[in-house]
Structure prediction request, 698 residues.
Amino acid sequence: MSDRINRLNRRDTLRWLGAGGTAAAATMALAACSSGNNSSGNGSGNFPTTPSWRFVFVNHVTTNSFFIPTRQGLADAAKLLGIPTPQWTGDENGNVANMASAFDSAIDGGADGIAIALTDSNAFIDPTKRALSKGIPVIAYNAAAPNNFPLAYVGQDLYQSGLLMGQRIAGQVTSGTILVGIAQPGANNLQPRLDGLTAALKQNAPGVTVKPINTGAQQAAELNALTAAFSGQPDAAGLYAVDAGSTAACANLITSKGLQGKIHGGGFDTLPDTIKGIQAGALDFTIDQSAYMQGFLTTLHLYLYRLSGTLLKPPQTDTGLTFVTKENVTPYVAASAYEGGSSHNLIQMPGSIPLPPPSMVTI
Amino acid sequence: MSDPVETRPAGPDWAKIGDALWRGLVRQKELSILLVTVAVAIYFISSNGRFASSENYHTIAQYFTPWAIVAAGEVMLLICGEIDLSAGFVFTLAPFILTTFADNGVPLFLALVLALLVCAVIGTVNGLVTTRFNIPSFIVTLGMYFLIEGVSLLMSNGAPVSAPSSGWVVEVFGHQRWSELIWVVVMVVIMQIVLTATRFGIYTQAVGGNPVAAAESGIRTKAVKVVNFAICSTLAGFGGILDGMRTGSFDPTNGGATTMFLAVAAAVIGGTALLGGSGTVVGALIGAVLLGIVFDGFNIQGTSANAFDVVLGIAILVAMLLNVYLTVLRKRVSR
Prediction:
């Protein structure tokens, strides 16, 4: 009996070793694929040769199409600077605990810089402190939070963007109810816009009632939520939204019900449906916060901060507040890498540049 | 089986002793998954020098503790042939129940106990509907899944709230470093003892393994199931509170379907049969540790989000295959 078992053992052991070896080889091959382009830095322009700095972006919706230009931007910046493409990680569904763990993994893994979307006011304070104490620079991008300690914020001034949107709405709607879609009420990256919008309307068009609609984070469900809300309020004077998906849903709703010109509409970001809505006149405007810049400039900031041993401290960077309307929508239609497409072709400059909002510097 | 060849010399037979040891070890249900987990850990330790640090072990613990505590309850249910899809959202909801009590002036510890009681009631409802009306628990808890998701969105207004940040309750239940892990390990040990060393545990296995025989021999199968549903929801709620206290934020995005599926994956990877009858809570814990190591390890390796799911999926499949293979080996050896 023992011989039989021994024989079995030998055979099984060999087979098990074989299976284990195959699995290990497969895992290593995968790891090799996933951690590719680990080329050592060559030094770009006047800059010295640097180690292959590994930057990590922690995101709340890693697979969301809004961030495709951000990922393009960080990859473009890395290529320009001769460093590996930063890692893009976090959670697919905004799970804050998972994001915090990914943040911690980056610290433990010895990342050279971390960019974090501060979608929660508490969960990222400890990891940020821990990273800084280990000499890892931390920059917030896309969403900021009070009482945390990132070196800088690269993104839109969210309250200000809502305020300006409210002022613009006040120029068009002076009475009645407007519906405003928001994917996640209370979220740090959305709620400030709604607050700014409400405040601006209260001041500039007190006759307007703002009715927030909780549309949820799934893009398909956002249209359903807005459609239902509009059915309940068919006399609404405007259909607006403060997030990318809900804005696209506004455009779709107005187009599908043939309401162009009968109802005002507008919102944020430049998803394809939103741009189509602008072209078709369904939406009066959408606000571009330049997702590309949030990836590109954050990477550049982290690089310069390391390169200069903290001399070049990352500046607070407002990535902008461009009102996209029928007049200036043309460049957005080209599938450029800066807006979610894949083309890096040179884009034709327009003959004239529309006046931006007046500068607000006090002298 | 007879052994025709017996030609070995007398004296200490090392080969025999080795055999006995090997067979004893291999008989342990959890051994195969433990071997796989150790192998994966060794791979990450050898491929990245940063993996082996106490801080990183803490990060790994952060990943797997929610899955392990939800899995501890799911194992009990899976063993008696049921499943609870709503556990992930009970995990989400429990912190908001606690806040509601605490905001109304209930002392924090009492609020925690009351929140867990509410979770137990949710589980009991799951169990009663399943057993009284003979509806598959997959359907019952699917309904409860959406109901609880909706309730937690309503209670939180879709927004995160700060967790309580001071007091001994906060420190003991999650905020103190490693406290979440200690609680989860304690819960797993308790559930493993309940499963293997108490009459209730034996009943649970009997109900899943052979429901008719169990009922014929006088086991109140429905009651056993209802209690297990209550246990599962309570553990999930407790996990949610611990996790919220640790991160300092009660967030409606925590928990949910992903946590529930990873917990079920941990249970199944750990050797629990999806169709009932057998399983181990410790195995589920090791399964969760394996998943945590894989999550953390690939993050440290620098795998980006889109490739991550592919890598994770393959890793789970390979781990599962190795586990099944080792289980077959175990059965053959211990025959």
Q: What stands out?
A: Chain B touches chain A through 66 residues (CB under 8 Å). The first strand of chain B starts at residue 161 and ends at 162. The radius of gyration of chain B is 22 Å. Chain B has a mean pLDDT of 88.
